[in-house]
Amino acid sequence: MIRKRVLAHGEVQGVGFRYHATAQARHLGLVGYCRNRPDGTVELEIEGREASVSRMLRWLETGPRYAVVTALDVSDIAATGASDFQITD
Length: 89
Known about the structure:
- This protein is of the alpha+beta class.
- It has helices spanning 17-27, 50-60; strands spanning 2-11, 31-36, 42-48, 68-77, 85-87.
- The radius of gyration is 12 Å and the shape is globular.
């Protein structure tokens, strides 16, 4: 299992980004979380099989229908063994 921290930049708040990212992550069997940050980005931590994490990263490049993703900052972090994917504050 691998885990990535992702910061999504652009028009990513107020467009259903967290809801759709959560649905996509769960569909791919990933665990972790997503949350809005005060600077207008969305922060995610995604954990799972490498192939599923890669698919999620590709999805995050465009995000849901009304999002405009201008950049993704991705870094490797230690896997936690979390059991679900959730939206946090």
